[in-house]
Amino acid sequence: MFTKVLLALDGSPEAMSAIPYAVDMLDAEGEIDVIHVRELMIGRGGKQTLHADESEVEDIVRSAVATLKAQGVRVTLQFATTSSASPAHAIAEAARLANSDVVVMGTRGRGQVVGLLLGSVTQRLLHIAHCPVLAVPPGAIRAQPVAETAEPARV
User: Fewest C-beta in 10 Å: which of 6, 47, 49, 143?
Assistant: First the structure.
């Protein structure tokens, strides 16, 4: 169980599937710090968000945070913006500044070749984060918690 969990969300279904894992990892006094990284492109028109639907993505992330709060989870939300560094660097820095115990994020599972060509935030984060990273693959099935018994088993 962890006290400080950093949950990286990009609004995708794969990222959102990591939310229950982050909640499951919290101890009784724990809290989740949610981060969403806006990626900027620099071009002739100035700085533009990489994703045209960025405001919709941010609404999805805000809604997820509101749902967690409604469930009684201690949660904060921060937005970071990056144009020169990858989102992985922004996530790693947020985890370091918050003294996070673990980073939780969903993966798209695109495969090695596509990951090599397009880059992988998860792959990069695994190499630069100061703490463990839980990468939740698409379609992951959560294990059910083991029920505690009233008396310990005797051998």
Answer: 143
DSSP per-residue string spanning 68-134: HHHTT--EEEEEEEESSS-HHHHHHHHHHHHT-SEEEEE-----HHHHHHH--HHHHHHHH-SS-EE
Whole-number pLDDT of residue 117? 38
Residues 6+ apart with CB under 8 A from 144: none
pTM higher than the cut 0.90: no
Which domains, and CATH codes, for the chain?
A: 2-136 (3.40.50.620)
What span, in angstroms and rounded, lies between the C-alpha atoms of 97 and 93?
Answer: 6
Phi, psi of 93 (to 5 degrees): -65, -40
pLDDT tens per residue, range 83-122: 766 899 999 999 999 999 999 999 876 555 444 433 588 8
152 vs 17, more confident:
17
CA pair distance 108, 80, nearest whole angstrom: 21
Q: Number of C-alpha atoms within 13 angstroms, CB side, residue 55?
A: 1
